[in-house]
Amino acid sequence: MEDKKIEEEIIEKVKEMLAEQGIVGSEKPDPEQLVFDYLLPALDELKEIQSALYEPFAASESGMVRKVKNGLIRKMANVTRNTVELSLMRQQKFNDNVSLIIRYLLEENRKLKEQLGKSK
Predict the structure, then answer these.
(1) Using one digit for the tens of pLDDT, what is the confidence trace for 7-45?
(2) CB contact at 8 A, 12 and 55
């Protein structure tokens, strides 16, 4: 029973957010405009998916213990980077390809709409 109540609350909050964004209402939103407003900016944000992987891990302090800690942290960071980098590279390539294809399809759609408008 409590799960049902939580589900209803979540649905209401989502509806409120959509109404605030102007996505829901009496008229159906333009799918092409939604792509320009939400999808393409999100894909642009994903272009640097690997940037966090190369953030520096070590703190710069002096002392023998700190040098040992920094060396160990650098080794762990390199192992992590080598392990994760290939999958992130694949994801980055996929994101770039999706963005490119969507932009191409939108341009083709625009051209076809223009041709259709001229033929009428």
Answers:
(1) 889 988 888 888 787 666 556 767 888 888 888 888 888
(2) no
88: tokens are 């992130």
Q: If we measure between CA atoms, which residue out of 44, 33, 36 comes closest to residue 92? A: 44
pLDDT score at 57? 63
Q: Tokens 């992987």 belong to which residue?
A: 53
Cα 64 to Cα 60, 68, 105: the distances in Å are 12, 6, 59
Longest CA–CA separation in the chain, Å: 80
Could you give the C-alpha distances from 99 to 42, 63, 86, 108, 111, in angstroms and in order? 10, 48, 20, 14, 19
Report the mean per-residue pLDDT for the chain.
82
- Identify the DSSP state of 22: T
Amino acid letter for position 58: A
Give pTM, 2 decimals. 0.54
- The C-alpha atoms of residue 51 and residue 9 are separated, in whole angstroms, by 37
How many whole angstroms separate alpha carbon 107 and alpha carbon 112? 9
> Could you identify the residue written with the tokens 């390539």?
93
